[in-house]
Amino acid sequence: MGQRAWIAVAVALLAGGCSTDRTVPEVEREAGLFPVRSGGLVGMIDETGALVIEPKYEYLGEESEGLIPARTNDRWGFVDHRGELVIRPEFDEVGPFGEGLAPAAVDGLAGYIDHDGQWVVEPRFDAARRFREGLAAVRVDGLWGFLSPDGEIAVEPAYPFTRDFEGGRAVVQVDERSGYIDTSGELVIPAEYRSALPFSEGLAAVQVEDETWGFLAEDGSFGIPPRFFWAGRFSEGLAAVRIGARWGYVNAQGEVLIEPQFERAEPFAGGLAPVRVDGLWGYLDRAGGLSVEPRFAQAEPFVGGLGLVQVEDGSWGWIDSHGRWVWEPTQ
User: Fold this and answer.
1) What is the DSSP string of 277-288?
2) Which helix (H) or strand (E) holds 125?
3) Which of 12, 15, 16, 53 is nearest to 35 (CA)?
4) What b/e sequence results for 35-55 when a residue is b if at least 16 CB atoms lie within 10 Å of its CB, and e otherwise?
5) Distance separating alpha carbons of residues 205 and 199, to the nearest angstrom
6) DSSP of 43-108
7) How does pLDDT run across 220-279, given as a tens digit for each residue?
8) What does the alpha-carbon distance between residue 303 and residue 317 come to, in Å, rounded to a whole number?
9) Fewest CB within a 10 Å sphere: which of 72, 180, 247, 266?
């Protein structure tokens, strides 16, 4: 695996995946502990940069419900915030806990375990994702549906692609077009969009037939008519949009609050958003000023007061909101 593999595993776990399928990259991450690499192994720091879990694992995921996915000897289990083993490493893959259950896979099939590592839903799915809003996406014979916590199918597997439920809606794909279902499985917004993102803060970015992007309201009408070359999710009252060749930010009324001037722009988190200027990444504040000057090869959204950044040699470290190192870059 490459230099970023240990980070990629954590991101994939957050998507709730428990197979080679990784379809939902945009998910909330619980703040508190942050993975770092030292001597080829992974540990965790707190927001001050103090080591909380000594680097001794091959990979660590993100903490969820007090448990952290941990890989050792090519097997996955869970540790607590001190790094003590809670669920033995006996799984091929695991995902983060959600609503008391975590997806886990053995011998090519996925099910769900509880905080004691006991099977609550026996492995029988091709792939499984974390529970959100009372339902979890599962794949059967190449098609996705949704499972209830008792192991019963709530929405029949019928979709080649889904995203998780957010705000009572989930993106599904029908005949190569995207729409939205509610938790009963009813298609409440027709599948007529080239692409669609989950609802966030009452709006969802969709791409229409002329390849422009706009934002749907929850009733399926356009809250912001399509006019952007690209669009992201709303976060902290703003959404990144591409107008012409540059990215800026609009509010929920579609008004441009931060003029398009960036090569790339990501969602706000903790009052800051990663933006790229002249090939380098820095962080923007909500007033449109650069809080952290662009100097990084890559930058991830802030969480829990820290931002994960990559420097020129490919190593990764954590900075605070002033751009000061909390954990110096390591590979």
Assistant:
1) ETTEEEEEETTS
2) strand 119-125
3) 53
4) bbbeeebbbbbbbebeeebeb
5) 8
6) EEE-TTS-EEEEEEESEE---BTTBEEEEETTEEEEE-TTS-EEEEEEESEE---BTTBEEEEETT
7) 999 999 999 999 999 999 999 999 999 999 999 999 999 999 999 999 999 999 999 999
8) 14
9) 72
| Nearest CA-CA partner of 316 in 300, 301, 302 | 300
Taken as a whole, the chain contains a residue count of 331
Strands (E), 256-324: 256-262, 264-265, 272-277, 280-285, 290-296, 298-299, 307-310, 316-319
Give pLDDT, residue 261.
Answer: 98
Closest by alpha carbon to 40, among 61, 62, 56? Answer: 56
Name the one residue in this structure whose structure tokens are 């983060």. 96
CA atoms within 13 A on the CB side of 115: 9
Give the CA-trace dihedral at 130, 155, 150, 138, to 10 degrees.
-40
What pLDDT does 331 receive? 78
Phi, psi dihedrals of residue 191, rounded to the nearest 5°: -80, 85
Helix (H, G, I), strand (E, B) or coil at 308: strand
User: Given this model, what pLDDT does residue 6 score?
Assistant: 31
Q: What is the DSSP letter of 11?
A: H
Q: Which residue has the tokens 């969820």?
A: 64
Amino acid at 83: G
Cα–Cα distance measured from residue 12 to residue 34, given in angstroms and rounded to the nearest whole number: 15
- Report how far residue 43's alpha carbon sits from residue 53's, in angstroms, rounded to the nearest whole number: 5
C-alpha span between 137 and 104 (Å, rounded): 13
Q: Give the SS3 label for residue 18.
A: coil
CB 87 within 8 A of CB 96: no
Going from the first residue of the chain to its last (331 residues), give the mean pLDDT of each consecutive group of 10, the final group possibly shorter: 33 44 36 88 96 96 94 97 95 97 98 98 98 98 97 98 96 98 97 98 98 97 98 98 98 98 98 98 97 98 96 96 96 78
Residue type, 195: S
Residue 18: the pLDDT is 60
Residue 155 structure tokens: 């929405």
Give me the DSSP letters along 236-260: TTEEEEEETTEEEEE-TTS-EEEEE
For residue 265, give both structure tokens.
Answer: 């722009």
